[in-house]
Amino acid sequence: MKAVCWMGKKKMEVQRVDDPTILNPRDCIVKITSTAICGSDLHLYDGYVPTMEKGDILGHEFMGEVVEVGPKVERLKIGDRVVVPFTIACGGCSHCRRQEWSCCDNTNPNAWIAEKMLGYSGAGIYGYSHMMGGYAGGQAQYARVPFADVGPIKIESDLPDEKVLFLSDIFPTGYMAAENCEIQPGRSVVAVWGCGPVGQFAIRSAFLLGAAKVIAIDREPERLRMAESAGAITVNDEEGDVSERVRWLTGGRGPDAAIDAVGMEAHGSAYDAVKQTLKLEQDRAFVLRQAMRSVRKAGNLSVPGVYSGFVDKVPMGAVMNKAVTMKTGQTHMQKYMRPLLKLIEDRKIDPSFVITHRVPLSKAPKAYEMFAEKKKGCIKVVLDPAA
Amino acid sequence: MPTLVRSKPRGSAPAPARARSRSTIVVPGNEGVKVVRACTIRKPAAELCSFWRRFENLAQIIEHPVTIVAHSETESRWSVSAPGKNRAEWSATIINDKPNELIAWRSLEGADVPNAGSVRFEAAPGDEGTEVTVSFEYNPPGGKLGAFLSKMTGEEAGQQVTEALRRFKALMEAGEIPTTEGQPVGEPQRSKMKKKGGKP
Ligand SMILES: NC(=O)c1ccc[n+]([C@@H]2O[C@H](COP(=O)([O-])OP(=O)(O)OC[C@H]3O[C@@H](n4cnc5c(N)ncnc54)[C@H](O)[C@@H]3O)[C@@H](O)[C@H]2O)c1
Ligand SMILES: [Zn+2]
Ligand SMILES: [Zn+2]
User: Fold this and answer.
1) What residue ranges define each of the domains in chain A, with the CATH number in brackets?
2) Interface predicted TM-score of the whole assembly (ipTM), two decimals
3) Domains of chain B as residue ranges with CATH
4) Which of A3, A19, A109 sits opposite B180 (nearest CB)?
5) Which ligand sits closest to the CA of A234?
6) Contact B41, B132 (CB under 8 A)
7) Which among A37, A234, A262 is the best mutation to test ligand 1's pocket, defined by most ligand atoms within 8 Å of the CB?
8) For residue B8, what is the DSSP state?
9) pLDDT digits (tens, 9 = 90+) for A62-104
10) What is the model's pTM?
11) Rounded distance between C-alpha atoms, residue A252 and residue A227, angstroms
12) In this complex, is the C-beta atom of B189 within 8 Å of any C-beta atom belonging to chain A?
């Protein structure tokens, strides 16, 4: 089959590799019909995620048709149409039972690496470094899906791929980010840093949960426009002090909740860029710091943005003295997929709004470049594995 | 003092296998490598204990290639591959067996690698399941094999036990041990794997 492989910093390559096979009794094989590139993949593309190896198959946002099932799979059968969540969960451990799916104990075969770096290991993730399990990803024509009865959600209606594909990651991610804000319907003001796909879904989810006002911060005109069309007030971070403007846009109180939907590659700080290049700091925490300072007293800070290691100069004084609560994590996917599918079926949201480019899988390397450099108004790329 | 089965700081200590005569000293104090590792498994102690009690089952959770044959209710023969064509072999006997609480074993005389260990099952708080604590110690012998085994410092031996517990937990809670072995992979990893004759 064809698959997108990581070949080093800013080097993606479409290669011919073996087709996946069932390796464990609870596996299934999915023939992929649609797959996307995520902002998280850009951290790999830019070489900031440790424990990648040349030849690793990328991709964690995919859906398709079940073509093979392992002997212990009960819920899925050949021919089922499924969306696959990006975190792999077993369904049997304490974390899975408590709906903390991305913290599953039993799905990272390389848990020892993650333990060395993080203390404890979270769930395995498709195509996201050896530390996160080393699973082959879904920017390919087929994928092996472990714990097939726990992860994939069946799509029984005839909703097209583009409306359900983002149940694989960014819609639940934006939704959980908003949920972590503990929005009071009709009252809460939420500020969202980053208007990439995750930010876009966070903005719409905040409104779905009843936010009175959403302030969206970015510098890309198309992305700000997309945020505006959802009803957000926009702030261009290049046009002056962000914290100041956010403060005056909230009557001097500060937003009730702040969302960092940018993560470790925030731009804006030369200090961090230099330290990150010299490997003195792994993640650029510019937005995180700004959000910590901007959020109101006793407010909520929600961090869907990905960090992989250490950050510098965290204003802990602001967090402590303002009594800020911070919530973060890889998304607990299986908790959100069903209720969000319902929202799509009920036409409360059509996630396809975010797609700007549809590209054959064979052109993935160029698509990565376009998405990373935000060329041609690129916000979200969907790859067609058949082409 | 021989240190066979070490008690955890809290709780009642496992009854030591009576007063030991010299011949029962398996790992003389201060000489062996000792590790204690624990994990929590969301299953009742009875289920976990009965898996462990059949020692041949342990081959499924020990990462290192090992053959375990049970000879009787209490005795088993272990054979572990070592570098080159070496093997380390020993017979083990159960010296303490409290259903659903504790199993302790030690190697018999003539072991290539004298060793002793115990596994303890205790209810975890709330509905977390069972805390499983393994204590294990071994005495690296002389010679080539000994040199290899001595290289396994306490930390490495500890990691082996950690991995065995991790696989035990996955098998019990998830019904299988997670793996990526045999999955597709791109170049240059693919050729490297093929050369090694192994699976990616
Ligand atoms: N928690 C999870 O489970 C999860 C899941 C998916 C993605 N993510 C993470 O969410 C983050 C966003 O993902 P995405 O797909 O939207 O990525 P993206 O790269 O498309 O979007 C990031 C946006 O942040 C903007 N930005 C950069 N610096 C900024 C600054 N200083 N102020 C304001 N905006 C700034 C960029 O212009 C860009 O539009 C990434 O870190 C990604 O890894 C997390
Ligand atoms: Zn993603
Ligand atoms: Zn789990």
Assistant:
1) 2-169+331-384 (3.90.180.10), 171-328 (3.40.50.720)
2) 0.93
3) 34-175 (3.30.530.20)
4) A109
5) 1
6) yes
7) A262
8) P
9) 999 999 999 999 999 999 999 999 999 999 999 999 999 999 9
10) 0.92
11) 23
12) yes
